[in-house]
Amino acid sequence: MTFVIIDYGKMSLVLAINSLYTNNVKNKRGENMIVQVRSIVKRYGNVLANDHLSLELHSGEILGLLGPNGAGKTTFLNALLGNTSIESGEIKVFGKDIEKFALKIKKDVGVVPQDLAIYEDLTAIENVTFFGELYGLSGKDLKIKVKESLEFTNLYERRNEFPKKFSGGMKRRLNIACSIVHRPKLILFDEPTVGVDPQSRNHILQAIKTLNKEGSTIIYTSHYMEEVEEICSRIVIIDKGKVIANGTISELESFIMDEQIINIQINHVNYNIVEKIKKIYGVKDCHIKNQVLTIISKYGVQNITQILNNLNQENCKIININMEKAHLEDLFLTLTGRTLRD
Amino acid sequence: MKKIKVIAYYELLKNIRDIKMLLILILSPIILIFILGNSLDSFLTASYVEPPLVGYVNLDKGNMSHTFNVFLQQDEISELIEIRNFSTKEEATNAIEEGIISSMIFIDDNYSSQLQDEEETEIEILGKENRTYVAAIVNNYVNTYNLNASIIENDFIPIEDGERYTIERGLINSKESYPKSIDYYAVQTLLQFLLLCSIFGVSIVMRDYQKGLSVRIKSLPVHKHEFIIGRLIGSIMYSFIAAIIIIIFSKYVYNANWNGNPLLIYFTILLFVVISNGLGVLLGSFTNNYTSSFGILALLAVVLPASVGAFSPKTLVKPISFIAPNRYALNIIFGTIYDYPKRLIMNGFIGLFIMLIIVYAMIIFFEGRRKYENI
Ligand SMILES: Nc1ncnc2c1ncn2[C@@H]1O[C@H](COP(=O)(O)OP(=O)(O)OP(=O)(O)O)[C@@H](O)[C@H]1O
Ligand SMILES: [Mg+2]
User: Most exposed: A198, A227, B25, B323, by fewest CB within 10 Å?
Assistant: First the structure.
């Protein structure tokens, strides 16, 4: 697979590489293409929620869609199913144009919304049955699949209870059960682990892996690199509506392999220092936040003495210092200078 | 079609489980009917221990005053006043002078003929004492008698003029029965609450209060119109069931008079809830906002019923009653219970059908143009 890393801000280059990539894959294995999104633009007033966003998804993949709050992940998923109108761009799911075949496509897609989407005044089994019927299931087939999806989410024992009595994790699991009852070919998970205890979270992640093994292609959005790392075969990072990185885990890792992160806590902030440090050999970037200097530096360059000297010259007292090899989690920082979460 | 059925079924199920809604929709009208239907009676009962002796002169040559005779002979009324008949006005006047009776009720000889000619006619109250008391009782009769007319003929307002009570229009009513307060308010209040069922309609086209649900619903392989129709059918069924419960309760517990053609009554109620739920959808489409919809609805649910006398037969907003679906439903329901002329029942149906067509044509027009993403 072609490895694509996009340098933030160099759009023309990005698009060229992207379209090359698209054509390549399409020719080779066009039938396996589950999602093809080309350069979609979605605006909310002044906000560009999706800014010429392009993306592909092959059958059998688990794609991690990673981005901070407001990056445009939910907007992208909404646009993907035609639930929100877009200003420009092209969206194909299962090789069909979403505008023309929306209903047909939706039959084979499961959506797990970011906000809970279950009826509090219907029992767990009624919730799943209701959505199962609306996905076209009926009779025995409906009964079997409802049972299976409740068992799959560990809710079968409590199927006759109302979600009001459920814990947050159980509600999340019911939210998933309602979305997979019809065995969709494509499942969109929009931050399904938000507000969930670690045990339920693990359960959800394992369930997603199982669904994938059983044949569903998956898009999984999150702010957590570690989650995405755990289950996804490929990761797309978006920020401010744009794709800023796209590749398998090892591809992305190789990108930051030669980097290290140096965190230095100092007693007082001086913005001069940032500019000075940036000029030091090997330093790629430097940011300051809450009296902590974060320096991204080339791995193996012995520049730490020089950095400390500079701090000394500015009369900064060092409270704490730590150096580590860049981890995948730091990729977003490396690309944007910001962290995924505050 | 199957999906519409599924959506309707679950909508009904969800509504039935919403206990608060159930209480508002069924308990409130039952209480209100009781309060409105009994307030006047209790006021009269409490006034006197010994019923005063009142003269009654009825010179009417026709038979229109017969219902008034029936009214005076009722047990409830004879507990309040004791009637002594006189054959001429002079005789009765003398009796007042002599202190035998405290006051008199007088009906002139042209009472029936005037009513039949669709002219005003009067029941007069004369005397020294107890005039307001007697007047209140007569007023009760005149009001209830005229309720029928007020509902059916739009140009009626009972006029109080000193102690003269004017009946502007007569109704030929072969059963010779007229609604008592409880009968009257049972129908009026029921319709008023069914008008409030528009709230369901509003929620149908509004973004779900849970944001996630509207995302899920939009992601289903279901057309927007299937969803709206399904939910509408569910809400209509729910409103209809609530109506049946209120009718049965007021009939067997309050003894309210519902003895008309049941098919006609239930069909009218069904038409009415179809219209009121549709009105809600329309309102939701227009405002796209719960708060303003509820505001407008609260206003409509007071003003429209008021225009047809749901709170009191006297009303200032009568001129707008032609846009109140209540008016047409009342025509039919009172019409079948109290044997009004067929023409009036027909008018009621024509009115309801016209409203139905207007409301749903507008829904198709406005909803058709609205984007799914706004729902
Ligand atoms: N309905 C809307 N109206 C106006 N602006 C919106 C709407 N939905 C999203 N936005 C804006 O579009 C941008 C992208 O939002 P989106 O919900 O897609 O982000 P996200 O990546 O899903 O974020 P989060 O991780 O917080 O869920 C944000 O700036 C948001 O404020
Ligand atoms: Mg989101």
Answer: A198
